[in-house]
Write a structure and sequence with these properties.
This protein has 619 residues and is an alpha+beta fold. The chain is built from 27 helices and 13 strands. The chain has 4 domains: 98 residues, Orthogonal Bundle (Arc Repressor Mutant, subunit A); 154 residues, ABC-type transport auxiliary lipoprotein component (Rossmann fold, 3-Layer(aba) Sandwich); 78 residues; 104 residues, no CATH class. Strands 8, 9, 10, 11, 12 and 13 form a 6-stranded mixed beta sheet that branches. The chain has a 4-stranded antiparallel beta sheet with strand order 1-2-3-4, with helices on one face. The protein has a 3-stranded antiparallel beta sheet with strand order 5-7-6. The longest helix is centred in the N-terminal third of the chain and has 18 residues. The termini are far apart.
Length: 619
């Protein structure tokens, strides 16, 4: 009897069967529909492979059972379930025929097998990595032997590494898959010649049925790395494919089957192989950046990722949840520098917005301590220097020192979107508006799905008098997430600038009832619309919140400014000065203060913050 379960390793690795829109990779045990991975259980793939290899002839049930479940007793009902699954998967082809009392026949037209990439040398792994960095090592080894190359002379200048997908649909593997991508992203992100999108940009692409080319178009990158893995005891099988987004061409693919041992003993060489596979050659400086080791406790790492998720929500509740997650990560791994940097950012943003849990001074003190600890643990960490730069800019108002820190962070990791974003704020505060907008656009290129970066761009466009651009950016953000309240304030003010007061009021009314800034947005719109009574009602609501929420003096001053009441504006700005409110660093460009901008007392506060006088933005 023919043994359908085995073929030579060389033959198997070269087998790629094409039928209809599907491709079946024998070596990788993977089925794809066009560019999309089709999720199937390992035994379903094995069943399909046996049928495809024997296309046109009847494969008996006994032969299938012995080939797919060798040496194991399995009832025919299990085989029937696999056949049913395959028929649903291949719906439309009607290519698996039942031959009564005999077996099954595969009847689709199969193209000649193509040659698939071969795996690289056998590496040993470190069990402590629990598979998180294992996929990166396996992937790297394959890249060394089959380096991606852009056909037609088009180089790969920007790359998105999608979360690695588990073929076993195990919830526990979701974290591991994201971790594999995160390790690779952080390593490659230090290279100036390659733009690698941050982990936060690809978080949403964990769906097993995702389309990598559609993701690449959304993310606006040249290429997408789509990878899946399957664990079996102490071994893991990883398959990967690099897709060119422009035309859907497959630039590279590889299959790897390895154990978990001795990861960190080869990590330096592996990181270099990954980068070399994309960039062709590496400088000595690039090798130095890639060879930095970082052994991270995987449980701490998962807590860190939760922190990043909550932090990106940009709400008081989100910042508090982020603090809890980052603190958990630092408790599990006291030497986790990246978690301390995340903790610094969470405290800094909590203290920079109205909240009911912590005064600004206390929050910024915690932020400074965490940023200092991160730098102490790893002085080469761009995130840590960015955190410290934000504190220097937003709380200390030491713009020149902040500029140096931002530049240092960007030298360490030019692909770190948050560094570009906050550097843009420093540029705007110091009077370099065109440069600030360009820097923020660079941040959006790196993380095009970031709500806060696009929201900041709407804000910057508003401040620069580019109202149509501000409207377009603001609407784009709210299309992605209608609950993202930060952007509603600036979108409403852009509509006010165009005298579209009814539309502005509609946008402002969308701010969440519990958001402390809701009265400010509504009061400003009503004031500029000439509805003084309504504006004063919202003003009183803001004042009432003063007792339960920090950072409110600036909000109240903003309302008085829009009403043109100079005395009250200055009085509340003085209180904001005592709190060292971060919003003061953009005081001279904020359109809410246009009615009071010419008053000498207002200009004196601008000077005390250390801001340059800027031309007034038109009424």
């Amino acid at each position: 009897m023919k043994d359908f379960s085995k073929t030579s390793q060389i033959d198997e690795e070269s087998e790629v069967y094409r039928f209809g829109p599907f491709r079946l990779y024998a070596g990788e045990r993977v089925l794809r529909r066009e560019s999309r991975l089709v999720p199937l259980t390992p035994k379903a793939v094995e069943t399909l492979l046996v049928l495809v290899r024997n296309s046109g002839r009847v494969v008996t049930k006994k032969e299938l059972l012995q080939a797919v479940w060798p040496g194991t007793f399995v009832e025919e009902g299990t085989l029937a379930q696999n056949i049913l699954t395959l028929r649903k998967t291949l719906e439309g082809l009607n290519c698996i025929q039942t031959v009564p009392r005999r077996g099954y026949r595969f009847s689709a037209v199969i193209e000649s097998p193509a040659i698939a990439a071969h795996s690289g040398p056998s590496w040993r792994w470190h069990r402590a990595a629990i598979g998180v960095a294992a996929g990166v090592v396996l992937l790297s080894a394959g890249l060394l032997l089959s380096r991606p190359r852009a056909a037609g002379g088009t180089q790969v200048r920007s790359l998105a590494v999608l979360p690695f997908q588990s073929l076993q649909n195990d919830a526990a593997d979701a974290d591991a898959g994201l971790g594999m991508a995160d390790v690779l992203i952080n390593r490659l992100g230090s290279l100036r010649r390659l733009t690698v999108l941050p982990t936060a940009a690809v978080l949403r692409y964990t769906d097993r049925l995702r389309d990598p080319l559609a993701a690449g178009k959304e993310l606006r990158v040249d290429a997408v790395l789509d990878t899946n893995f399957q664990r079996d005891g102490d071994r893991v099988r990883v398959t990967a494919e690099l897709w060119r987004v422009r035309d859907g061409a497959s630039l590279w693919s590889g299959k790897f089957d390895r154990s978990y041992d001795d990861l960190f003993s080869v990590e330096d060489a592996i990181a270099e192989d990954v980068a070399g596979g994309v960039l062709r050659s590496l400088t000595a400086g690039e090798r130095h950046l890639l060879n930095r080791r970082s052994a991270v406790n995987p449980v701490a790492w998962r807590a860190y990722l939760r922190g990043i998720y909550f932090w990106n929500r940009r709400t008081s509740e989100g910042h508090q949840q982020a603090i809890q997650a980052f603190e958990e990560a630092t408790r599990i791994d006291p030497n986790y520098a990246l978690a301390y940097a995340g903790l610094a950012d969470a405290y800094a943003l909590l203290g920079s917005n109205p909240n009911a849990v912590m005064p600004r001074a206390a929050a910024m003190s915690q932020a400074r301590a965490a940023a200092g600890k991160a730098i102490q643990l790893d002085d080469t960490l761009a995130e840590a220097h960015t955190s410290m730069a934000f504190i220097r800019m937003h709380y200390d108002w030491e713009f020149a020192i902040a500029e140096k820190e931002f530049q240092h962070a960007l030298d360490l990791n030019p692909s770190y979107a948050t560094a570009h974003q906050w550097h843009a704020v420093n540029l705007l505060a110091t009077g370099h508006t065109p440069e600030a907008i360009a820097e923020l656009e660079r941040a959006r290129e790196l993380d095009p799905m970031s709500l806060i970066i696009s929201g900041d761009l709407a804000e910057f466009d508003l401040y620069a008098g580019r109202y149509e651009d501000a409207l377009a950016e603001g609407r784009r953000v709210l299309e992605m997430d209608p609950s993202f309240d930060i952007t509603r304030h600036f979108l409403a003010l852009a509509l006010v600038a165009k005298h579209e007061f009814a539309n502005a009021l509609q946008v402002a009314n969308g701010v969440n009832q519990r958001n402390p800034t809701r009265p400010t947005t509504l009061a400003c719109v009503e004031a500029f619309a000439g509805h003084t009574k309504a504006a004063r009602q919202w003003l009183q609501s803001a004042i009432d919140r003063r007792a339960t929420s920090s950072e409110m003096p600036f909000q109240i001053a903003t309302i008085y400014g829009s009403l043109g009441e100079v005395d009250a504006t200055v009085r509340w700005l003085e209180q904001a000065m005592q709190e060292r409110t971060g919003a003061l660093i953009l005081l001279n460009v904020n359109p809410a203060f246009i009615p009071v901008r010419e008053d000498p007392r207002f200009r004196a506060i601008v000077a005390r913050v250390g801001l340059p006088p800027l031309p007034a933005i038109g009424n």
